[in-house]
Amino acid sequence: MLPLYVDLDGTFVKTDLLIESFISALKKNPWVLFLSIYWLVQGIATLKARLAELAEIDVSLLPLNAEFYDYLLDESAKGREIILATAANEKFAKEIVSHYSVFTSFISSSEGENLKGSNKLNKIQEYGNKFAYAGNHQIDFKLFSVAAESILVNPSRKAKRLSQNFRFNKVFDEVSPDLRLWLTQIRVHQWLKNLLIFVPLMVSGSYTDYSKITLTFIAFLAFSSLASSTYILNDLLDLPSDRNHSRKKNRPLASGRISLVSGGVVMILLFVLAFILSNYLSFEFLFILFCYLAITLAYSFKIKQYVGMDVVTLAILYTVRILAGAAAIGVITSFWLFAFSVFIFLSLALVKRCSEIKLMSTEGKNRATGRDYTINDYGTLQSLGTASAMLAVLMFCFYVNNNALNDQYQEPSLLWAIVPGLIYWIMRMWIKTDRGEMHDDPIVFSIRDKGSLITIAFCGLVTLMAQLL
Asked: What is the DSSP letter of 208?
């Protein structure tokens, strides 16, 4: 039986260890972004070696090509010699072979050699000219062309085109990501948060001004594009913690259903689109968009690691959306409305953390991965969250009692009808959280929960009636 040499990136695992090591090193030291250029000038092998020294990757959490792995287990049971043949640095190769007993040995890149393409072929032929090889990339066709047995696994787009003129002994091909998967990745459902941009348009009574409606819609698209870009960035930075989470491990990037390279390209395109759209709006809006980006980057790289600071930052990011909507159409929104926004979204951010702690408790975990929370923090966070919710109700009451609303609403007194609806919705969210029935994203829960949808629709209807009657 021929020895089987198995590629790592994209073949055995549905990810790229070079990109993963870069992300891991970058989280530890942002200067890696510039150091990587210096290391790359010295050679790709040097870059891989330096990043491997800094990176911390749990190979047990890497997403596998499951069907192919089952095949390897069967072949190993038959006594076949299976060797990991990877261009990744030897540090990761050793860890993979140590963790997965299906491999008998490995060959890999070192600081002095990048084991890819012809270099990999030459290394394999040092051990014998007759071999089987499993790969996924177009460069692997250099090995397929001389291998006695060829196995194509989860091929890249270019490799899939080349495969049409090549006969393989076996093919393990997964379905390419479709539009629905990409919409999940960019979190289209989270664009509901960006509807806050329309709040200044509504409360200022400008909802019949077509020019302001157009500006607000452009602002919504710009913010949504930037938000989706930052969601991808956050997922890239959160790969280890997401893979260690019972639900988040199924996210497209964490599970490998969307490649890290594709995710990075779409992230950049969405980022560029956001700032192209913002050029049609005021300088104030552009400044707020930059502030949102700066706060989000600070959150993704550092703030989310600190207890308390993360939820406060999330509340600020929600409120920034209202500021952006006001800047887009050049209006000033009530102080009480901003205060209400800060407290209500602080409460929702705490709902999110409490639901995660509840899930940790059921899974027997004591501490969150990548965040400074333990199961003992639940009581404190719940108290802060419910207190913040009641403060939000109070701020809304002050907003309704504001005499300035007489210029914005025909019947501002009707807004008092929102108060009991708001109290009910907040109670419902926290009771569901305490019961362990809350989704780890309160927005997802709200759009799936009939009680929440009815309450939100009622509040929206009351607001409209106060404007028109």
From this structure: T
